[in-house]
Amino acid sequence: MISVLLVDDDVELTSMLAQYLQREGFAVQAVHDGESGVAEALTGRYAIAVFDVMMPRLSGMEALRRIRAASRLPVLMLTARGDNVDRIVGLDMGADDYMPKPCMPGELVARLRAILRRTAPAGDDALAAPKRLQAGALELMPGSRSALWQGRPLELTGNEFSLLEVLARQAGQLVSKQDISKRAFGRPLEPFDRRIDVHISSIRQKLGTRADGQPWIQGVRGLGYQLLVD
Predict the structure, then answer these.
(1) Would 171 disulfide with which of 116, 135, 137, 209, CB 3.0-4.6 Å?
(2) CB contact burial 61-75 (16+ within 10 A = b; e otherwise)
(3) What is 2-127's CATH number?
């Protein structure tokens, strides 16, 4: 099992990301300040670390500097959305990749696996992403974040892929909107937030309708959505 270190002072976000990573087969340890993060990162127990840039006591950038002085542990940085300065500085200091916050858990998993594949010893198959997720006529390839529908390429946005992956993993079951939001987008659903409904509407158009004229993604008002497979 691949060990991941999460370092972020946002306890709620870290908890949600940790749960998602664990479902994807990772072992996860979370700490919530930079100094503790550096100490954990240098124990040698982790295959990769994720550091938020903005943290109390010790910033993610300073944490990265200290890690790079002693270790080549792969590090992915979480930066404020649109903050190109943090991104450039982090990469120059030796970060292996970066993601803007808030981040989608599905994309985070894909980025982590991509970094691990680049840095893993040749022939290490344990770090490979699951090649395929099948749910009826839907095929998802989490490693490349690509999809097929009825054997043909299905064009999806990043948000749509993350949402559809959640439904595909529980195909035929009702998934609450709160669970969809946490697992696909890494944050709880807020009152009057319609983003899931908007994405579902777009995905439905791309999938078309069933033989009975109904959509492949069924909704139960006030509860959630389910992906039908037959």
Answers:
(1) 135
(2) bbbbebbeeebebbb
(3) 3.40.50.2300
